[in-house]
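## Example pair
The file below holds two records. Each record gives the amino-acid sequence first, followed by its structure token line.
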Amino acid sequence: MSEEKHDIVPYRMYAIILLALLVLTFSSIGITHIELGAYTVAGALLFAIVKSYLVLTYFMHLKYDKPYIRIMVLFVFAIFIVVLVITMLDYLYRV
């Protein structure tokens, strides 16, 4: 247990990530007020993806974890994308 490496992240990094998350949150709110048609949802989802990446990487310390844990998280996201695509295809081809 004492052989584990502990990464110390400065508070400044957390403050920068927090500010980035706040800017992205307000941007995702703001994009809904712009008339982009079908791309409004895509834009909001893009902001959500970037925010989840920042949270996973820095606040959940995935950046400093072992590589197999990152692979497991990517696998879960891949399954989520597949389920989302299947759901959207079902919605698209419904009569």
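Second record, same layout:
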Amino acid sequence: MKITVDRRRCEGHGLCEGVAPGLLSADEGHAELLVDGDVPTDQQGAAMSAVRVCPIAALRIS
């Protein structure tokens, strides 16, 4: 599983960082990924939660 951020859409609400602090950080008003490549198995639930809480759908799971 991979998570991606569409930085053009991201408005920096920070909700994703709140539910997935090990995966995402709100940096300069935009979400930044803290992992390269695949999301670790123990963080996959947090990744899915981050996608769900994003109010503008800037995050995607693939």
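Notes on the second record: Strands lie at 3-5, 24-27, 30-33, 59-61. The longest helix spans residues 44-53.
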